Amino acid sequence: MKFPGRRKIKHYFPVTQSNSSLPKSEVQPNQDTYIVGLDETIVDVIATVDEEFLARHGIRKGLSNLVTPEQASAIYQELVIEQRISDHFAGGTIGNTLHNYSVLADDKSVLLGVMSQHIALNSPEYHYLCATSSKVDMHHLQGVAGDIGRGITLITADGERTFAIAPNAMDDIAPESVNEDVIANAAAFVTCAYPLRHAGKPIKDTLMKCLALAKQHQVPVIITLGTQHLVEEYRDEIQSIIEQYASVVAMNEQEAEALTGEAQTLLAAEKALQWCDMVLLTAGAEGLYLCGYTDDQSKRGTTHALKSQAISDFNQWEFSRPQRPSDCDTPIKVYSHIDPYLGGPAQIHNTNGAGDGALSALLHDIAANHYHQQQVPHSSKHTTQHLAYSSFAQICKYANRVSYEILSQHSPRLSKGLPEKEDSLEQAYWAR
Questions:
Q1: What stretches of 1-41 adopt beta strand conformation (E)?
Q2: What is the pLDDT of residues 279-334, one digit of tens each?
Q3: N or C terminus: which one in the chain shows less Cβ crowding within 10 Å?
Q4: The domain 35-41+92-145+169-430 belongs to what CATH superfamily?
Q5: Does the record's keyword annotation contain Kinase (predicted)?
Q6: Burial (CB count within 10 angstroms: exposed 0-12, middle 13-18, buried 19+), residue 148
Q7: Domain boundaries in the chain?
Q8: Contact call for residues 38 and 113 (beta carbons, < 8 A)
C-alpha cells in the first residue's frame, strides 16, 4: 500500500520485503488490506437532443424524470443510432469513492452491488467496467438479468439539462450475496444513505446486514449522506443508523444542516459528533472540516494560526491523531479546517464527486493505519488505538488536494494519483 498524503519523503510499507508470489486481482481477506463498499451501480450518459426528442419520449424538460427500463432502453438505443452520446461516466457515490481510493492507495477495494450478467460491447455496463480501476475487486458483485442503473442527461440547444433516470436492477443485491469474511477482515466498510429510500428492495436489507457484520467484527463504518432532500426525508432513521453503527459521517454543509438543524457549519459538525467518532464536512468555497476525538493525554497543539468561529481557537489540537471516544481515558473534541487548495481551481469543470474524493483520501489514511498496525504492531504509533494514521490537519491537507483534482476535471473519478512533482506554489502550500 502506498503511504497516504504528501510528505517530503515518500513512504511505502513494508519498506523492504521480497515477494515471489504472483499478485491476485481478487481480495484475499486474511492477507490483503482493503476497504469494502456497498453501492447502487449506475452509469451516467450525457447526450445532446432537441425538444422534439423530449416530447416524443414523454420527457419533461428541465426536470428529473423517472422512466421504466423499457423507456430507458428505447431512449438509449435512439441516442446510439443517432450518435448523440458525448460521454459515459461510471457513477455511484461509493463506486466513485472506491475507485479513487484504489487509485490513491494503489491497492485493492471490494465493490458490493449488482452487474448485468450479459454485457455488450459499448453498452453502459461495458463503460462502467472500463472506467473503474482494476484494483477494485468486482468478484463479489451479484449478477442480474437486467441492466444496472442509467442516469441519462439530455442537453438541449439552450443548455437546459433534463434527466431520465432508470434504476433498473441496481437495488436488487440480496443479503445472501454478502460474504461475511470479506467484511470481517476489511479495514473499513463504506456506504451511503441512498438505499434507505428503497424499503421494498433487497438493497436495504443488504445494507443492514453489512452494517451488523461490520459492527460485530469491529470494522469502522463510514456513511456518506447523499443529498439534502434525502436527509430531510429520512433524518430520524439516518440519525439512528449513525448512532448505532457509524464511526465516520461524511457530508456537505446542506446535508449537515438537514441532519443536525444547525446552519453554522462548525456547530453542525460538533452536534454530529454526539452520534459518531469523526465527521468529514465539505463546505464548498469555505473549504473542509475534519472533526473528531483524541485522548487528552496525547493531544498535540497546532503550529498553524489559531482559528475562531462559534468555537474559539477550535483548531488548537489539530495535530492530534483521531481516536474513538471509547479508546480514550479522557476524550476531547478536535476540530481542523482548511481553505480550498490554492484557492480552488482556476476553472471548475465538475462539482460532482469532490466530496467523494475527499472521503477517499480519509479512507486511504484509515486503511494505512490498519495496514501499518498489521505490519509493525509494536510501533509507537500503536501503543494506543487510533482510527487513522495521520493527524487531523494532515488528513485535511490530503483530502483537500484530492478534491481539487476532482474539481479540475470533468469526471468524478481520478485517472491517476496525485502528481509526483510539486511546483513552487505547491511546495509553499505543503510546507505550511
A1: 35-38
A2: 999 998 899 999 999 999 999 999 999 999 999 999 999 999 999 999 999 999 99
A3: C
A4: Ribokinase (3.40.1190.20)
A5: yes
A6: buried
A7: 35-41+92-145+169-430
A8: yes
Looking at residue 58, its amino acid is G
* pLDDT category of residue 430 using cuts at 50, 70 and 90: very low
Question: Cα(82)–Cα(100) distance, rounded to whole angstroms?
Answer: 33
Rg (CA), the chain: 22
Phi then psi for residue 79, to 5 deg, are -60, -40
What is each CA distance from 305 to 282, 313, 317, in whole angstroms? 21, 9, 12
CB 285 within 8 A of CB 265: no
Residue 45's DSSP bridge partners are 88, 152
C-alpha cell at 263: 446552519
Backbone angles phi, psi at 83, to 5 degrees: 55, 45
Question: Rounded to whole angstroms, how far apart are CA atoms 27 and 137?
Answer: 7
Sign of CA dihedral 226, 230, 231, 237: negative
Handedness of CA 112, 114, 119, 121 (dihedral sign): negative
CA atoms within 13 A on the CB side of 363: 40
Pairing mode, strands 85-90 and 278-282? unpaired
* Grid cell in block for residue 46: 450525457
CA distances from 367 to 84, 232, 260 (A): 42, 31, 28
d(CA 243, CA 247): 9
Give dist(CA 264, CA 261) in Å, integer: 9
Which phi and psi (to 5°) does residue 403 adopt? -55, -40
CB-based contact 305:410 (threshold 8 Å): no
Residue in this structure with the C-alpha cell 495496514, named with its chain if needed = 371
Residue 194 is placed in which grid cell? 441512498
